[in-house]
Amino acid sequence: MERLAKILSLALAVSALAGCTDTRPYIWGTTVLKTVEVANKETKIPATVMVCYNAEWHDPKVVTYLARKECAKTGRKAKLLKQDVLACPVMLPARAHFECLGEPVIAKPAPRKSVVQPAEEPGPEIIEPVAPPQLPEHLRQ
Fold this sequence. Notes:
This protein is α+β, with helices and mostly antiparallel strands. The protein has helices spanning 2-18, 60-72; strands at residues 26-38, 41-53, 77-85, 94-101. It has two helices and four strands, in the order αββαββ.
């Protein structure tokens, strides 16, 4: 009976830790500057973005990229405010706080085109996509 209890407690511990194995940095949360309504849908505009990461494993460029991507959703840039530790899960104990700078730009949905209306000709402007920084080899899936 004692052996069965040990096996069950070990199985429970392993299953509990299984949820803590993702070691990629992620957006922990945002503080909301304001909420606006666009096309009958509520859109939250972040004032700050918080990213959880592990300072030993993650390149600061990856952490900054996540914050920039989040702030760019409203047409703004990210600026590092501060960092703190032991604020996120054990595997990713560091947290970086970024401020979204600039006036928010809310994209309104494009009007739906009629089936009869011809498509517009593409413009001459081509915007090259910017590749995100590469994660270290041991963090790729």
